Structures are given as structure tokens and as C-alpha cells.
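ok trying this again, last paste got cut off
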Amino acid sequence: MYTDLSLYIDGQWVAGTGEGRFTVTDPATGEAVGELALAGKADLDRALAAAQRGFASWSVMSAYDRSRVLRQAAALCRERVTRMAACMTRDQGKPLAESTAEASAAADHIEWYAEEGRRAYGRVIPARNPAVRQLVLREPVGPVAAFTPWNFPINQAVRKIAGALAAGCSIILKGPEEAPGSVIELVRCFHDAGVPAGVLNLVFGEPAQVSDYLIRSPIIRKISFTGSTAVGRQLGALAASELKLTTMELGGHAPFIVCADADVQTAANLAVMLKYRNAGQVCAAPSRFFVHADVYEAFAEAFAEKSAALKVGAGTAEGVQMGPLANARRLQAMLELVDDARARGARVLTGGQRLGETGNFYAPTVLADVPPEARLLSEEPFGPVAPLLRFTDLNEAIERANALEYGLAAFAFTASVKAATELGNRLRAGMVSINHFGLALPETPFGGIGASGHGSEGGSEGLEAYLTTKFISQI
């Protein structure tokens, strides 16, 4: 089950006029699943003009009416979960159960924004002069250009689309060429729900060319990007030169701290779930495991045993718990990072090799005794490789956890309320989850600091990102 690959511009599904086509492949088999139309300059100009017209009408529609359309889109998402999930597993590779969970969550995100958009309140400021009325209004920023990655095709796209539309903005989404199917099906839900022509547009194309063209356009007033820190720096600099607002959700290298008093089995169970979800291709996945010396061996044994027991295979196969890496680039990166760590003295507790000759499969991998100079401890792995590191003092662990420029997510396990409070206060990250996984819900902010970006998606902060403040003083 797959979908027709097209662009969506001004309310119509169209073939791109750009040069060439992008071959979409199944990462489990390497087989082609479709040819994706790419946008040319004429397509981008048409999308920009449509977004400008769409903003003019959508921004003045009542929040109540916008909410009604969004709620209908959410209902359609729920009806079409199976199709969206099948498309995602086919071109992105994650197990069907994970794709289904991601597709199902899209409706929750849309509904949250549908209701939050009705609560974009302003305020009245008491004036010094009784004849003066002082108002603060919240207004949509304008047409948005959004750029989303391949690792969570629906999750990343729906946050931007729903947030922008709920605020009254129009949006041009540049989706991921490597995993376009489920994004197209998501946009189809909004189209069938009655989103007016021009309010939502979807394009694919050569990333650098599309981003440069859209960001430089005077029509675009806001940029939202999810992707690597390196690309985020480039797009952020370009947006700054055009004085445009940005939300950047970039890379991460999340610490996972296990204190001496932690429940080791519970920590190991969650470590496996978080580390190998989407084959580790998650910006907020734990990637540096700091374990107290008193429980290091017990945690290492439990974590390695549970990692080795995971069933790896094609996402469509029965009972598969981890699928392939999404592309050959990630497979090569795992080979290089693990070889580097091993050459520097790290011990492989489990995994450490490619699985099979077909597809981009890499074994769930746990490394012990990883030296500080290993590339794995400073470069975001973005794959199913977990380095274990000992500590004896909590202060030491926190300092090492905070040593990198990244600051997206952090995780910690402890039975001590005092230690939990200290961890929550001192860990340098936009999101900290202690003794469980509590991130990425529609009603909570999702975002980082430092080299992990700025701004948040989700929660009331996600709506604020698409609003500007206007002060009115009237006599």
C-alpha cells in the first residue's frame, strides 16, 4: 500500500516542473517504491503566491471556524491511520507498530491546536489616562515556510501544519524526499477536511535550492525547521539576514543518567525502548549512558541482554521491534563510529555489526569502556548504538552530561527526590524526563537550547511561535 507522489499547491495535486525525479526506495529491501516529482522555480512561485492569497483569507477567518476545519482534519487522520502508517513503513522503514503510533498521534496534535487556537488571548492594560484604552492583540505572523525531516515524517510535519493553521497562518511545507508517502497522505486529510486553497502547500525538491528560494522570498515571514544542527545554522543565518522569525529544532546528544539508587531493571527497560525506537534515528534519543559505578555492571548486563533480544527486520514483518536504518548514509555512519570506538579501546557487549547484505540493517549495539576521545561521545550518533560510561559522583555526571553544545533532551533515574530535583534543575536541556518517558505530548513544549535550537513546538508555546504582538493605544 503506497500513494501517488505529487506536489500540493493552491488546493491541487500537481506534478513538479523541476528537473529530474527522486527515486523513493524501501530501506528494508533497497527496491524502488515510487518516483517523486520535484518542484521547480515555477512551482515555488506558484506556492508562494497561493500562500499569500491563502493567508489573506485564512487569517481573518474566525478562530472558531478554523478550529472546526482542523477538527475535521483530525477525524480524517483517525480514519486513515492504517494507510498513513503503511506508507511510512514502506519508505522510511520503521516497524508498522511504530508507524501506526505516529500516525495515530497526528490527530491528537491537530485537535490540541484546534482548541488552543481558540484561546490566543490578548489583554487589556489599565491606562494612566482614563480616556485611553490600551489593548494587546495576538495576530498571525504571516505565511510560513517549514522544513521537515525523514525520521518522523508525520510527527514533524503535523506540529508545524497544525500550529501554523491554528494561529491563522498559511504554510508551505517542504517535506522529506526520502519519506514522502505519509506526509502526502497527511496533507490529503487537511485538503479533504476543507482547508481552503493556498492555505496549505506541500513541495519536494533539492533541499538547499528550495530552502534558499523560500526563505529569501518577501512573502515568507516565519521559518520553522527540524533537522541537523549544521543545516540549522545555515538556514538560521539566512533567515536572520532577512529579519525573519525562526523556530529551530536541531540535533541532540541526550544523556541518560542512572543513579546508584535507581531501579536498574526499570531503567534498562526504558533505555531499550528509547534507544532503539526508529532504529535510534531520534533527535531526543539517549545517546550517552552515565551509570553509577555501584550499578554499572548490573545495568550493562540487563541493557545488553535486552538489546540482543530485539527482533530486527523489515518493518512489515510480524513481531519486528526494530527496522532498518532509513538510508545507506546512516548505516555507514554506524560502521565508522563503532569502528572508531572499538579501535580506541571500547568493548562491544552486543551488536557492533551490519545485519545481512540486503537493506540498511544494523544490530542493536551496546559499548562499554568508551574512552572520552571516541567520536561517538561528541558526534550525534542518530542510530542504534549506546555507549556506557561510569561515574561515582552525581555532580561529576551532571557536568559531563552538560559538556557538549547540545541541549535537547536529558533522562535520569533515581529514587531520591533530592537528586531528582537537582537533576531537573541542573541538566542543561530544553526537556528533562525523570524516572519515565514524558516528552512529545501535544500539550507540552518540545524544543531545545544551545546547538539543539530554539523555540518550541507543542503546548501553548507551539502556538505562540506563529503569533506576533500588536499594542493598540486608543483615545
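PB: full thing came through this time. Residues 96-116 form the longest helix (21 residues).
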